[in-house]
Specification:
CATH architecture: 2-Layer Sandwich
Structural class: alpha/beta
GO molecular function, one term: nucleic acid binding
CATH class: Alpha Beta
Order of helices and strands: EEEHEHHEHEH
Number of domains: 1
Pfam families: RVT_3
Distance between the termini: 87 Å
Strand order of the largest sheet: 5-4-1-2-3-6
InterPro entries: RNaseH-like_sf (IPR012337), RNaseH_domain (IPR002156), RNaseH_sf (IPR036397)
Oligomer: single chain
CATH superfamily: Ribonuclease H-like superfamily/Ribonuclease H
Number of helices: 5
Protein name: (rape) hypothetical protein
Largest sheet: 6 strands, mixed
Length: about 210
Amino acid sequence: MVLQRVSRPAPVTIQDALPHEVQLYCIVDASWKSPSEKIGIGWSLYSKEGTLRLQGSSAMDATGTPLVAEAVAMWEAVCQLHRLCYKNVTFVGDCLKLVQQLECSMEDKQHIEDYISEASSTIHDIKVVAMKNHYTFNHVPRIFINVVDSLAKNTRTNNQSYVISWPCYSATVNSNLLNEIERLTKKKRKTALAIGDGPNGAGMLQ
């Protein structure tokens, strides 16, 4: 009897690449150019349906390697969501080495030499915060982090200060504002019609 290996289909969306139980996921990325130049970090928090909840980005001090830059970006994302009291978040990125080291650290594996690196101290700090908040880490293909990758690159290029935004809240505010403007406009039109002094609205407000 010959057993055939059944390969899993390639993920089409980022949700396909994540565990089914994930309710919130945060995409994290860093932009690194050289050891002497500032890095850019970016992160975006999404609901499991793919709705953007909030995002952050900043230019930060230079790091010696891309791995350390990725670790700094992850640290910033973890810290910010901890400060905002988010629990049970899955953090994802395309840096396989970082995710593997985080997983090893979270699992307290005995062979610590397997994941000792220049980012070890930052990884330890991430672990401490992650354990308190039930955070987990997953690797995803680069194709799924393009938006955050661009966010990090633009931040580095523009030497941007730290910015955190709530796009979904802004969209709600803008929508409510537009609805209120429309309501007031209709009310004004009704008032103008009510005080008109002729069939052609000669007395209508201008």
